[in-house]
Structure formats: C-alpha cells, structure tokens
Amino acid sequence: MPSPDPAARVDWPAPTPGHAVDATVTLPGSKSLTNRYLVLAALANSPSMLRAPLRSRDTLLMAQALRSLGTRIEDSPAQGGSLDWLVTPAELVGGATVDCGLAGTVMRFVPPVAALASGEVRFDGDPQARVRPMGPVLDALRTLGVTIDDDGRGTLPFTVRGNGSVRGGDVTLDASESSQFVSALLLAGARYAEGVTVHHDGKPVPSEPHIAMTVETLRDAGAFVDDSDANTWRVEPSELSGLDVQVEPDLSNAAPFLAAALVCGGRVTVPAWPQHTTQAGDAVRDILDAMGADVTLTREGLTVAGTGEVNGVDLDLHDASELTPVVAAIAALADSPSVIRGVAHIRGHETDRLAALARELGTLGSNVTETDDGLRIAPAPLHGGTFHTYADHRMVMAGAVLGLRVPDVVVEDSGTVAKTLPEFTTLWERMLSSTGPAHQ
Ligand SMILES: O=C(O)C1=C[C@@H](OP(=O)(O)O)[C@@H](O)[C@H](O)C1
Ligand SMILES: C=C(OP(=O)(O)O)C(=O)O
C-alpha cells in the first residue's frame, strides 16, 4: 500500500553530505505515548490536556477514531505556536466506522474501547493492515463478554457490537506476535465491570517496554495495576482521571538522526531526551555506543558523537524491535559483521520487515541474510539504487541512513514516513545542511 496521500507519493533522493554533521534536532512527540494518552483521555471522567502531542497519520487516525465514538478532541494553542490537544470525554456511542490506516495502535487499542459503546463499530484499514495479526485481541474480547463479527481470519475488517458495558474478568492469550495485544486490553480494562486480568501463554512477549509504558500511563490516570508476576497483568475496575501531560519526544524516531553522527562523523543533539522513560527507543543509546559512538545524556538532551567508523554488533532487539530497520541500515555501513536477532515478530509489522530489509539492502549490494528471527549483515561495498519502502515509515528512515554514505540512493514513496513523522525529510535535510551547532 503506497502513501495514502497521492501528493505525498514521491521518490526522494537521499542526501549524501560528504562532510561531518553538527546539528541539534528537535523531534515531535512519541507515537506510543500520544496514542495511549488519547485512549486514556477518552475513557477518563474529566478533560485532559495533551501537551506537544505527535501529529502524524497514526495519531490523527487515533484522534479521529475516538471522535467517531463521541470524544471531543480540540486543538488548543500553546506557547511557541504549537497546538496541544484538549480531550473532553463523553458517553461512548456506536454507529461509527473506524479507519485504522496501518496503525497497530489504532487497530488493537480502539476495539476494547468500542466494546464500551452502545451500537456497532466497524473497523477496517489499509490493504497491508488486513494481514496484521489481531486474532488474540478479538478472541480475548469475546472471552470478556464482547460480541464481534469477523470472517474468522483474525484480522481486519471486523465489527464490534457493544451494549454500553463490558463484563471483563480473566483471559489468557498468546501475545508473542505483539505486545499491543496486552496493552489493548489493559488500557480499556479499568472501565470493565470486573476489570481485567491478562495472562500471556506462549513464546516471550516482544517489545515489553511498551507494556511497561501502558502500565505507567494507566497508573498516571489513577488505575490500580498489578504487574508483579511475569506474564500476568491485572487492572482493577476504577474510574480514570483526566491527565495533563507533556508528551516526550519520540525516541525511536530520533534513532536515524542520531545515527547520522556515527555514520558521517560529527555530533547530533536531540533536546528534551527524558531522564526516565518507558520508551523502547531509549535503547538506541546503548546500541549506538556499541556501534562506536560517544553517547552523552545531560539535562539539555542526548548528544551522539562519532568519527564515521561504525562497528558491527550482535544485538537482540526483541525489546526494541521498532529500531530494527534503522539499526540494519547502520549495520550495512559497518566495518565488521552484525547479527540482529530476536525479532521474528516484525514480519507482522507494517510489512514483513525482515524480508523487506533483506531485499532492499541486498539490492544496494549489502551482504545480508534473512534468518528465522533476524538478519546477518556482513561488510560489502554498497552502490546507489531505488530503496523500496512498502508503506513502512521506518524503511524510509533506513533508506535515509544508507544515503548518508552511499550516493544515489532514491527512497521510493518517502511520503509514507508520515505514519509517525511527516516532517522527516525536512528535518533530515536541515540537519545535514547545518554547519555548526545550529538549532533546528
Ligand atoms: O504499543 C506500542 O505503542 C507499540 C508496541 C510495539 O509493537 P509490537 O509489540 O507489535 O512490536 C512497537 O513495535 C510499536 O511500534 C508500538
Ligand atoms: C511497528 C510499528 O508500528 P505500529 O504501531 O503500527 O505497530 C512501528 O512504528 O515501528
């Protein structure tokens, strides 16, 4: 599925600067936090203020989904010209159709909310969204007392038939394909009559920091969550309070920018890097350090400095799997071999990311092998060519990283990056044109 906006369907020649970088790049808010705050705000008993939320395709789809269920979400002018979101909850109503686009957070987090509405809510999304796994969420909701019509494939499209309340209770599911299955049930679970207890039974759950994020944001909203046992999470039935929150910058989206300092030499600073965070993208600090960068976290932000020399690494990205495309691109520029393991489940992300990365890196000359749960990448001379993106924002970012060192890389359908960072190419070109410690 190409970019939803045909005007954005452009091929982008990824710039090759040929010099060291020296830039400060201010990044928009976290997708994962913005979409959790929106859901919790829609379920709360009073209005919420989301400060500096991410505005991208995934978060606009989430806002639209919740609006269609009755929630009021209004722009609220803030200092510095930015727009916050004032979210006013209301009784949840059905009769809506939710467009999930290609957003995992929308297709998984909204059905448990729609189950609390009275009336039918239909869900569908992009063609590629129709193959993303959903079955464990649908089956779990049925166990918790919700009626759902689907064609039995456990994917979009489907219809949730709510009657205004959900019984809730205990449910066991296999969340080895996505942590979002667990997060989805927990986020709405406080509003279920019996709350919810989710047990995971299966191979290890990926992306666990995202479940910690769900638990932390729920507690911020006043929910009682017990996560003291491995693979079991309990949310007590309770009201949720409105939130007034500053959304942290998206640390996974920061990864390609920080990588530029390692790959080109020089330094890149991302301001407002949180000292404490549940974002999985925080792992980029250790990853870039292992690949040869100097990484410094201060109150001002995170600074990465490099010489242009990149070390290969052996990394298990099971907990931070959304970093895989960018890390694979950096690894393709390294002087020694790399192994990325623990990410079998990213075959069910926006696209089959392992197949896409193996194909596209290979086309540019990389010595890359797809394994059951990751990639092996050995040094090889790379050359220019078209880097296809498969409607995957992180493939655009991976192509940009390759272009830093490989002339004539053309990133096909770069507009698809709008899923989480519509201003990506602008920020990228500005970063590369800065000749001093300029502020973006
Ligand atoms: O809950 C979330 O916000 C997310 C959870 C993770 O999903 P998976 O567990 O499917 O990897 C992550 O990769 C995705 O980008 C965002
Ligand atoms: C896997 C990702 O997204 P989603 O929330 O759609 O699962 C991602 O952003 O890398």
TrEMBL record:
Domain Enolpyruvate transferase: 16-425
List of catalytic residues: 322 (proton acceptor)
Pathway note: Metabolic intermediate biosynthesis; chorismate biosynthesis; chorismate from D-erythrose 4-phosphate and phosphoenolpyruvate: step 6/7
Catalysed reactions listed for this entry: 3-phosphoshikimate + phosphoenolpyruvate = 5-O-(1-carboxyvinyl)-3-phosphoshikimate + phosphate
Positions of phosphoenolpyruvate binding: 31, 104, 132, 180, 353, 394, 419
A GO cellular-component term linked to this record: cytoplasm
Family matches, as CDD domains: EPSP_synthase
Residue numbers binding 3-phosphoshikimate: 31-32, 36, 178-180, 207, 322, 349
InterPro entries the UniProt entry points to: Enolpyruvate_Tfrase_dom, Enolpyruvate_Tfrase_sf, EPSP_synthase, EPSP_synthase_CS, RNA3'P_cycl/enolpyr_Trfase_a/b
NCBIfam families: aroA
Family from the record: Belongs to the EPSP synthase family.
Subunit-structure text: Monomer.
Protein name: 3-phosphoshikimate 1-carboxyvinyltransferase
Organism: Knoellia koreensis
Source species taxonomy: Bacteria, Bacillati, Actinomycetota, Actinomycetes, Micrococcales
